[in-house]
Amino acid sequence: MGQPYEPDALPRLGSMPDLESGVDGPPDLTAVIPAGGAGTRLWPLSRAGSPKFLHDLTGGGRTLLQDTADRLRPLVSARVMVVTGERHADAVRAQLPDLDPDDLLVEPSPRDSMPAIGLAAAVLERRDPDAVLASFAADHVIGDLDVFADRVRQAVSAARDGWLVTLGITPTTPATGFGYIRVGAALGTEGAPDAHRVDAFVEKPDVARARDYLASGDHLWNAGMFVVRASVLLELLAQQHPEMTTVLRQIAEDPSRLADLWGSLPAVAIDHAVAEPAAAAGRVAVVPAPFRWDDVGDFASLADLLDESPLHPGLRVLGDPGLVVNQGATGLVVATGGRTVVTLGVPDLVVVDTPDVVLVTTREHAQDVKGVVATLRATGRGELT
Amino acid sequence: MGQPYEPDALPRLGSMPDLESGVDGPPDLTAVIPAGGAGTRLWPLSRAGSPKFLHDLTGGGRTLLQDTADRLRPLVSARVMVVTGERHADAVRAQLPDLDPDDLLVEPSPRDSMPAIGLAAAVLERRDPDAVLASFAADHVIGDLDVFADRVRQAVSAARDGWLVTLGITPTTPATGFGYIRVGAALGTEGAPDAHRVDAFVEKPDVARARDYLASGDHLWNAGMFVVRASVLLELLAQQHPEMTTVLRQIAEDPSRLADLWGSLPAVAIDHAVAEPAAAAGRVAVVPAPFRWDDVGDFASLADLLDESPLHPGLRVLGDPGLVVNQGATGLVVATGGRTVVTLGVPDLVVVDTPDVVLVTTREHAQDVKGVVATLRATGRGELT
Question: Residues in domain MannoseP isomerase/GMP-like beta-helix (chains A, B) (predicted)?
Answer without folding.
Answer: 325-376
